[in-house]
Amino acid sequence: MKISIIGTGYVGLVTGACLSECGMNVTCMDTEEEKIANLREGILPIHEPGLQEIVTRNFQSARLKFTTNIQETVERAEVIFITVGTPPREDGSADLKHVKTVAREIAQYINGYKVIVSKSTVPVGTAKMLSSLIREKMNRLKKGFDFDVVANPEFLGEGTSVRDFVHPSRIVIGTRSLKAQKIIKGIYESCIKEEVPFILTNFETAELIKYASNAFLATKISFINEISNLCDKMGVDICGVARAMGMDKRIGGRFLRPGLGYGGSCLPKDTRALIKMGEESRVDMRIIKSVCEVNCYQKKIMADKIERKLKGVNNKMICVLGLSFKPGTDDIRESPSIGIVKELLDRGASVKVYDPIAMESVSRQLTVHKTIKYCRDEYECAKDADAIVLATEWDCFSNLDLMRMRADMHGTYFFDFRNVYDPKKVIAAGFYYVGVGRSNIGEEIESARRDAVNDSK
Ligand code: UGA
Q: Would you call 97 helix, strand, or coil by DSSP?
């Protein structure tokens, strides 16, 4: 099976590489010449666990090719995946200009039957629009070839995308054509070695499944963050609440980790796009609007917490650990961690930062401030700081030498904004512990420690 992928970003590269790993003959195309030249040299534009090996192996065996030539990309393939970006417009709606350009190019170079798969996250109605756009342009060019469009949204999470491709929870195939449905289902069946549910449906349902899924994940996160804020005030431990909630199979335990809110290139963008879709259909998406509001507010609440505990952050030095929007990736798009860095800088703090992978992305993209110091490791970051803020739960931050850090610091606060640590361990190292939705724990242990010290006097 000859497959072409147009748009070699996260989704395109992972999909292309994984399909080639299953033995398909794949060409990944992108207009960015430097990206393609680098890929041919084995240099990937993203950090994604497991991807480097797959790309190298399949490129070397010529099952995976990289090109900037759109004509060749279209002509050679039986199946074309469109995986270009759909960036948000100012009003939150998805900008389809790249998707439309690709559709016109496909119409221009089509040379026989093709299945055209829309994999980018696109608003309801896009697959239908693509179909008409390609048909119209082909008619103008007097081309009589047959083609089918399929809406096949992806559910790959950054940092786990290779694993998510190999172990999908479901595969959604939206098309009117049984022929195209059979071809796409066949591709996935030959790749995925386990039982996986196929949702065979129409364009519109497939497109909405993607938005509704991401919006629901965002809702779970904002919900638990709101409950955690209540826990902070009421002296209740959110960890116990979330764990017990998650044991109810109707609720499920995943995406109930409180923190700084959700970030990345998907949940923030897709929730805003869903609100916009609602507006266009005259449906007020009240839940999703609140979800976005709670998410924005969460960073502010956490910055307030730091400010309150430190009695002001002006001229204080804060060490922020973790900058990517989640562990396992170097992506900092809409990263909550960057949000908290900006909040702290705006309030007059100096900030030292460290991330095991995302430092380069940050220094390349973050042009906000002169008062950020980029550090070589966690310990340099903590040196002389008034407080540590653990913002992204990278594995390497779960086993810090807390005693060493504390000894080199100026202050005593440890803000664990991903609830990574057992507060007892942090307090034993001489810190004052502040988590999310578990302030009672820090305070209880602290007062028990004070009592113990007093008793021993
Ligand atoms: C998300 C979805 O999870 C994927 O299924 C989907 O395919 C993808 O968007 C997409 O549309 O392409 P992703 O953006 O990679 O994936 O990241 P998530 O794992 O969803 O995490 C998003 C944010 O939520 C991160 O900032 C993370 O730290 C935060 N989060 C996640 C929490 O704060 N608490 C949680 O319990 C879970």
A: helix
Q: Is the pTM of this model over 0.85?
A: yes
Among candidate residues 381, 295, 383, 382, the one with its CA nearest the CA of residue 340:
295
* List 266, 292, 319, 375, catalytic entry: 266
**Is the C-beta atom of 216 inside 6 A of ligand 1?**
no
Ligand 1 pocket, 155 CB below 6 A?
Answer: yes
Render pLDDT for 405-425 as a digit per residue (tens, 0 to 9): 999 999 999 999 999 999 999
CA of 288 to the centre of ligand 1 (A): 16
Distance CA 258, CA 417 (A): 8
Could you give the C-alpha distances from 18 to 54, 165, 167, 301, in angstroms and in order? 7, 7, 12, 41
pLDDT band at 92 (very low <50, low <70, confident <90, very high): confident
Q: DSSP label at 358?
A: T
Kind and range of the H or E element at 148?
A: strand 147-151
Pairing between β-strand 198-201 and β-strand 171-174 as defined by DSSP bridges: parallel
Atom of ligand 1 nearest to the CA of 154: 7
Nearest CA to ligand 1 atom 19: 157
Ligand 1 atom 20: residue of nearest CA: 157
Q: What is the pLDDT of residues 347-396, one digit of tens each?
A: 999 999 999 999 888 877 765 556 789 999 999 999 999 999 999 999 99
pLDDT at position 303 over 90: yes
297 close to ligand 1 (CB < 6 Angstrom): no
Alpha carbon of residue 374 to chain centroid:
23
